[in-house]
Amino acid sequence: MADTAADTAPADRAAGTAGDDGGVRTAGGDGDRAPAEYRTAELAEAAGITVRTLRFYRERKLLPPPRREGRIAWYNEHHLARLRTISALLARGHTLGGIADLIAAFEKGQDAGGAAELLGLESTLVSPWSEETPVRLTAEELAAHFPGEVTSENLATALELGYVAVDGDEVVHVSRRLFDASTALVREGIPLAAVLEAGRVVREHADAIADLFTRLVRDHLFADVRELSPAELRRLTGVMDRLRPLSKQVADAELALAMDRRIRAELESWPRPEDAPGPGNGDFGDDSGS
Q: Which pTM value belongs to this model?
């Protein structure tokens, strides 16, 4: 597997052009966790790469062909997982030429020194932990959800945080659950700008929690591992599968307990009507008689 200039993926982070196909949709009825389908720009954004890099990978045949509807290419979660696998293997020092060889061996049914185990990452380690369904809205629908709050500043912040992306005349929000939560908070009277800033802070803490869990695994279960062999990959896959529900369980329980403590402290800090000065309850009673 020789290193060549072509083995280096494009490293720029420039966004795809506005005219490029973007967007995501799901199939199935309401309430189903239907598999998502992505157009080119949305797939690149979900994978954390540029449209240019995605096309480069496609030209190198590192991705299976997309499903096509006329001139529109539709990608699925398998394509997203493959892109994340490529990124993970590049981070571990593999070249694109070497990754191409692994993929070719895997698709031909050859072992090629653990190709199946290495590329098996795409169904476990690099598959999304989240179960989010994107939301597509017109500009009018977005304004109706956040009356008077859809300002250029708030849109810029939402774009920066990765909550929304623009697809033609529509806006795509990355998460139905986060979108519904934001809508409810704004309806309660909290400004959207404050909700977005809170989201930024929550993300920082969530990243810290994710870092904690991954360091627990690395430091205590894989401290002596110098190279992820196929056997170690299988063991890591099992650990991560078991960690998924546990990490969510711990985070949910700790947040609930923290909210209980914080709400009690807030209630205790507020003055009560019976604490107000007045007759029989302080030094300001009627002093007309003695």
A: 0.54
- Alpha-carbon dihedral 210, 129, 168, 18, rounded to 10 degrees: 60
Tokens 């920066």 found at:
160
The band of 278, judged by pLDDT with boundaries at 50, 70 and 90, is low
- Could you tell me what percentage of the chain is helix, strand and coil, using 3-state DSSP and rounding each to the nearest 5? 55, 10, 35
At 287 the three-state DSSP class reads: coil
Question: How many degrees, rounded to 5, is the angle at CA 38 between CA 80 and CA 53?
Answer: 55
Largest CA distance in the chain: 104
Strands 36-38 and 72-76: antiparallel
Nearest to 114 by CA among 242, 232, 3, 237: 232
> Residue 138: which residues within 8 A CB-CB, separation 6 or more?
169, 170, 171
- Residue 286's alpha-carbon distances to 88, 92, 273, 281, 289, in angstroms, are 78, 81, 19, 11, 8
261's tokens: 């403590």
Tell me how far apart the alpha carbons of residues 67 and 73 are, in angstroms, rounded to a whole number.
6
Given a contact cutoff of 8 angstroms between Cβ atoms, the answer to whether 167 and 136 are in contact is yes
Query: Using one digit for the tens of pLDDT, what is the confidence trace for 36-52?
Result: 788 998 998 888 888 88
Q: Which residues contact 199 (CB under 8 A, 6 or more apart)?
A: 161, 163, 178, 182
Which of the given ranges, 9-13, 34-38, 263-267, has the highest pLDDT on average?
263-267
Sign of the Cα torsion 247, 251, 252, 257 reads: positive
